Amino acid sequence: MRNLRFALKQEGHSRRDMFEILTRYAFPLAHSLPLFAFLNEEKFNVDGWTVYNPVEEYRRQGLPNHHWRITFINKCYELCDTYPALLVVPYRASDDDLRRVATFRSRNRIPVLSWIHPENKTVIVRCSQPLVGMSGKRNKDDEKYLDVIRETNKQISKLTIYDARPSVNAVANKATGGGYESDDAYHNAELFFLDIHNIHVMRESLKKVKDIVYPNVEESHWLSSLESTHWLEHIKLVLTGAIQVADKVSSGKSSVLVHCSDGWDRTAQLTSLAMLMLDSFYRSIEGFEILVQKEWISFGHKFASRIGHGDKNHTDADRSPIFLQFIDCVWQMSKQFPTAFEFNEQFLIIILDHLYSCRFGTFLFNCESARERQKVTERTVSLWSLINSNKEKFKNPFYTKEINRVLYPVASMRHLELWVNYYIRWNPRIKQQQPNPVEQRYMELLALRDEYIKRLEELQLANSAKLSDPPTSPSSPSQMMPHVQTHF
Amino acid sequence: MFSLKPPKPTFRSYLLPPPQTDDKINSEPKIKKLEPVLLPGEIVVNEVNFVRKCIATDTSQYDLWGKLICSNFKISFITDDPMPLQKFHYRNLLLGEHDVPLTCIEQIVTVNDHKRKQKVLGPNQKLKFNPTELIIYCKDFRIVRFRFDESGPESAKKVCLAIAHYSQPTDLQLLFAFEYVGKKYHNSANKINGIPSGDGGGGGGGGNGAGGGSSQKTPLFETYSDWDREIKRTGASGWRVCSINEGYMISTCLPEYIVVPSSLADQDLKIFSHSFVGRRMPLWCWSHSNGSALVRMALIKDVLQQRKIDQRICNAITKSHPQRSDVYKSDLDKTLPNIQEVQAAFVKLKQLCVNEPFEETEEKWLSSLENTRWLEYVRAFLKHSAELVYMLESKHLSVVLQEEEGRDLSCCVASLVQVMLDPYFRTITGFQSLIQKEWVMAGYQFLDRCNHLKRSEKESPLFLLFLDATWQLLEQYPAAFEFSETYLAVLYDSTRISLFGTFLFNSPHQRVKQSTKSYSSTLRGMPSALKNGIISDQELLPRRNSLILKPKPDPAQQTDSQNSDTEQYFREWFSKPANLHGVILPRVSGTHIKLWKLCYFRWVPEAQISLGGSITAFHKLSLLADEVDVLSRMLRQQRSGPLEACYGELGQSRMYFNASGPHHTDTSGTPEFLSSSFPFSPVGNLCRRSILGTPLSKFLSGAKIWLSTETLANED
Question: Per its UniProt record, what InterPro entries does this chain match (chain A) (predicted)?
């Protein structure tokens, strides 16, 4: 968050040209120019486009199984043009069922599986709102479909539905044909509203954050100014929602259906954060890339509209920092669990930097079908190529790989913090110590350990060469070494 | 983890203990084990059986059954029930899990549910009802609750009255520290955290912070030589130790030995002393290597003499400066919040952190925190101290701290300036000697400010504010300190355990006077552990910060931009990487001054991040540091010939966690006992009354308790 101001010394001719060139290249789409990603000829020794392969990812989750199948019904994006080609749906729902359900879901975004619990087999399913409307329409196929999803889990007799919106917004959506699952239509479901506000509220909130940190950091009443932006409060609600989803699946042993209005903003935040809490795989560098690729990019979070790549219309009401908010939530989690993530803060920052940069094709366009039409994977470089060819830079030294540990962050204002290293990084006075001294010390010690082990081995070699008698005593170096290593 | 419900024995299980099969060593009946662990000199005053200790606010299913005793030192709850929801491997050496030292009690509330009565118990008060519940509000933010539903009503009442009586003594002599006469510290006097210290006195005064710190003996500044060594250590050439206050002949709130400008004669000082408030002559604190001195001084009350004496003193300080630099005077009373304001902020902070319902304070948390003004005050002290660092370091000016009595704000500012300027004070030994020098010996009124006798209107948490400000520096420069934040928290706790003399008195003179009454020897003849509680083995945990780098022998002063202004000085300083062996300056913008969560949230169950918090990274760091330590030892032994049992030394590891400790056999994961509260635990330590209770319990759980005791006390 910064504004740049340049002063040109030469009077006269060059200023106007400069301005025009700047606007042309800053907003190429408005001037029928290609985005830089299509001109970028960088070469990396790793191809980031191969990171995410949906079939492989679902196989990792143990899918298909006898309750869930992989369908190619959306291969040509005919069922739903903002969904990926490959979907996981209940085994007992036929393709025809899916088509009928699609008519009752906003933009045909039907409930499909995002994640399945490896042990209790409960699932997280995502979709858009049902098209209930003012008249309270019902759709037998949709009701049946949700029941089929519920039945894949034998442990709990109810399906839990999390509507990410505040209940008033959900009701208001009926006026435009939307709505939510009512009790009488969906007997076997329990619905909860998560009170997360819409894209416009988030955009205004972030604007206020900018106002208090740029150009000057609000000094006298920092905390109350921060509170008045409501940014952390929104973060808290998103995290609280995700915790509820994760807890329901993990401890509540209930399958969960998540939606908001269209199922591409708040829904993506909730499913991806819940998956991050539940599945330690997503806390590795590649796992996180897969998570972003899957829940955000392939499921049609409208990056082009939300960011406005190359577009000059900066007041566009479609713009909103939803993905940034998600990354902020991830950062909050990594602060609370410093050993749980393979990646460091720099990793999150570089993702955000290239969310806006258009240097890579990763975040371009609104959905998979558009990307395919533009041949993004052939014509541009993936951000993950840059990151994965330089992984060491983005690694958290404290990372401890733990399987099956569910992370429950404390979503309390007492622990949430403004991400100073990101939001206020352009202010020289606020700059934190880089690199983090604790991390630095750890790296030093790691190096020291390796050096000691090496020197020890050398010494032992030299000693055993000197010793003429065979090493029989318990103090034999060759016996000591493996013993030492077992300690660590 | 929360679904694991431990087996809950009823109180009857004490009468008929279940047969134990696995426990072969302890074959006696369980009831025998319900004996309090007592310190030497500690006696049980009263006790009651079949007491329930409340663990959770909203349910009684985790409650523990046991015996509640009141001794002349602590309240102790003895139980055989395992602690629910908690797997701790660490234990405080002095206090059990359910113990509260009497001096830590803030308020005692007795309740009778049936009669709907409650009373705040003062000393020597009567109680007209039999209590069904006892709530102890502690000074360290804990709230402990006991229920007497199954206990004898009379004995319950007696214990409550005993606690009220013994926790609010009328005289200093009644504090337990005067009874605490054991062999314990005689044996451990030369041991710190179980590690035999090297040579006691000699090595301590050596180089500028050289050496490992805790193996040195902390200078107490009670002797001539301690001050003399400090002069030599800082290279203060124009200063001398003055003995005119020997036997406290001049002032009872100054140390017996003080350091003064060499050009001032004893006779002059004696005359001047009459003009100062409390006869507190100027006290030298510290000298910069450029010769600028830090001096603290009380006001000159004699108006006629004021200018003359002030002039004489300032001239003398100037004369002691190698460059004859001017003196910069800082009037702390005018620039900083006073002790009442600090106390008010602290009360609000405590209210906000532990007493109010967690969820209800969430929405307005940030502005409520701001409204306590606590962080604002921490910031003010840091900022002002940093400005004085600029005067000393960059402008080469000697600084005089002025305050009416010179024994409150001056303690805090003088200490902070030295922590920022001198890396020695960032070692454990150095930090402790700083507390001796600027607080204990300089006459900070611990007795009144900590309110040990619970009748003082002069309570103020200035010492905590200093620890908090130090924590801010530690947070910003973690590698610049030898100690960790746990050390600071334990230091804060030890001001409320009346075992050691360190934080018990209002002045060094009072300490000597009081001590001679109960001991035949003088204070100086006392075992060191009593004099200086902070370095004895109070806790099992070595509180070392494994981040510390080996201090360089010469903290060279590279910055020599004498004529820059404050703004520029700070800008330049922050633009360069910090030299951790030199000056460290705090960043004081709103985004940098943070709430010390470990200290203020450690008892709050809702705020606990289980298996998380910065401790998890610290844990890994400690394991690695320990491993490197073992390797380097092996390497040394390899070089010096045959290998000896290097594992035998492992027990001496000074790290927080051992790489090969019995509890860390599997180091691949985060140990279950780690949480953001570690090494403390909120379990059973913050039992607020349920919000969903009777009107009475609502009243008790609410904010009113801590603020308006009068209204409560009148109802009985």
Answer: Myotubularin, Myotubularin-like_Pase_dom, Prot-tyrosine_phosphatase-like, Tyr_Pase_AS, Tyr_Pase_cat, Tyr_Pase_dom
Q: Is the pLDDT of residue B191 over 70?
A: no
Question: How many CB atoms are located within 10 Å of the residue B118 CB?
Answer: 23
Q: Do A438 and B478 touch (CB under 8 A)?
A: yes
A438 contact residues in B (CB cutoff 8 A)? 478-479, 547, 617-618, 621
Size of interface A-B (CB pairs under 8 A): 173
Judging contacts by C-beta atoms under 8 Å, the chain A residues touching residue B639 are 459
CA dihedral (A352, A358, A362, A367) positive or negative: positive
pLDDT at B9: 35
Contacts of B478 in chain A (CB under 8 A): 437-438
Q: Range with the lowest mean pLDDT among A428-432, B66-70, B669-673?
A: A428-432
Task: Name which of B587, B589, B628 is nearest A452 (Cβ-Cβ).
Answer: B628
A260 is catalytic: yes
The average pLDDT across B623-645 equals 76
Q: According to the annotation, is A261 in a ligand binding site?
A: yes
- A456–B638: do the CB atoms touch at under 8 Å? yes
Q: What is the ipTM of this complex?
A: 0.89
Of residues A228, A198, A195, the one with CA closest to residue A211: A228
Taking each helix axis from N to C end, the angle separating B339-350 and B374-393, rounded to the nearest 10 degrees, works out to: 140
Q: What is the pLDDT of residues A194-253, one digit of tens each?
A: 999 999 999 999 999 999 988 888 777 999 999 999 999 999 999 999 999 999 999 999
Nearest to A413 among B362, B591, B642 (CB): B362
pTM over 0.80: yes
The beta strand positions in A112-229, using DSSP E, are: 112-116, 123-127, 159-163, 189-193
Which segments of B247-326 does DSSP mark as H helices, in order? 266-273, 303-320
Residues from chain B contacting residue A429 (CB–CB below 8 Å): 571, 574, 587, 589
Instruction: Give the chain A residue whose CA is nearest to the CA of B663.
Output: A487
Spatial CB neighbours of A173, under 8 Å, sequence gap ≥ 6: A129, A165, A179, A180, A261
Confidence of residue B504 (pLDDT cuts 50, 70, 90): confident
Which tokens is B147 given? Answer: 């229920």
Q: Mark out the alpha helices in A52-194 (DSSP H runs).
A: 54-60, 95-102, 140-151, 167-172
Q: Is A374 exposed, middle or buried (0-12, 13-18, 19+ CB in 10 A)?
A: middle
Which of B369, B574, B617 is opposite residue A438, by nearest beta carbon?
B617
Tell me the mean pLDDT in the region B551-559.
36
pLDDT at B463 over 50: yes
Residues A456-480 have pLDDT tens digits of 888 888 877 776 554 444 443 433 3
Mean pLDDT of the A406-427 span: 92
Residue A307 Cα, gap to closest chain B Cα (Å):
28
Q: Which of A80, A127, A260, A367 is catalytic?
A: A260
Of B81 and B618, more confident:
B618
Rounded to an integer, what distance in angstroms lies between the CA atom of residue A241 and that of residue A156? 20
Instruction: Provide the shortest C-alpha distance from residue A423 to chain B (in Å).
Output: 11
A217 to chain B: which residues are within 8 Å by CB? 589-591
Taking the CA of residue B615 and the nearest CA in chain A, the distance in Å comes to: 9
Q: Which of B410, B471, B422 is nearest to B277 (CA)?
A: B410
Task: Tell me if A413 and B478 make a contact (CB, 8 A cut-off).
Answer: no
Strand ranges of the sheet holding A189-193, from the earlier edge strand across to the other edge: A112-116, A123-127, A256-259, A159-163, A189-193
Distance CA A359, CA A350 (A): 12
Sign of the Cα torsion B414, B417, B421, B422 reads: positive
Distance from CA of A384 to the nearest CA of B (A): 27
* Secondary structure E strands in B62-218: 64-71, 74-79, 100-101, 105-112, 117-120, 133-138, 143-147, 191-192, 195-196
* B647: pLDDT strictly greater than 80: no
Q: Is A262 annotated as a binding residue?
A: yes
